[in-house]
Design a protein that fits this description.
alpha/beta, four-stranded parallel sheet, EC 3.1.3.48, Ptyr_pPase_sf, LMW_PTPase, protein phosphatase, hydrolase
Length: about 170
């Protein structure tokens, strides 16, 4: 299984989600799952993750090795699950979908959060905001990634994805 995390610029949220997910999958002993990230824009292609994203992530024990890339329609061919950070990212990725099967792979990361009673929450973009925004971002990403790892373990990923698609 290949999971791709996607945000706008691929320097804050999606590399953070990639780092968190990579470590949590490893801790859970889930072999055979790979993770990558991309952005919907071309703003930061080739750039390392944002300094505040890296500092907060490293402080939590995560490591970073990716550089920013832009999501392309061909990424649907490689990814089994595409985790977008917000509704705008979702719209941008869905606009590139070529088939219903492509569309079926796209879900907001927040769909896996511990509390979805008020709907699926976006992971707000912290770019340009103070450090506290990155702290909140990581708290939200860690919660949702924990839910995703549990869903992989218990085989309920497709159910969560289908439930979010029903809300679209």
């Amino acid at each position: 299984m290949h999971i791709m995390t996607v945000c706008l610029g691929n320097i804050c949220r999606s590399p953070a989600a990639e780092a968190v997910l990579t470590r949590k999958l490893d801790e859970a002993g889930l072999d055979g799952v790979t993770v990558s990230s991309a952005g919907t824009s071309d703003y930061n292609i080739g750039s390392a993750p944002h300094q505040l994203s890296v500092e907060e992530g490293e402080g939590r024990g995560y490591s970073f090795g990716s550089v920013a890339t832009q999501f392309a329609a061909e990424d649907f061919d490689e990814a089994d699950l595409i985790l977008v950070m917000d509704g705008s990212n979702e719209d941008d990725v869905l606009a590139l979908a070529r088939t219903p099967q492509d569309r079926a792979k796209v879900v907001r990361l927040g769909a896996f959060a511990g509390d979805t009673t008020q709907g699926v929450l976006d992971v707000p973009d912290p770019w340009g905001l103070p450090r506290e925004a990155y702290v909140r971002m990581y708290d939200q990403v860690e919660d949702a990634v924990g839910g995703l790892v549990r869903a992989i373990q218990d085989g309920s990923v497709k159910d969560v994805v289908a439930a979010q698609h029903a809300r679209r």
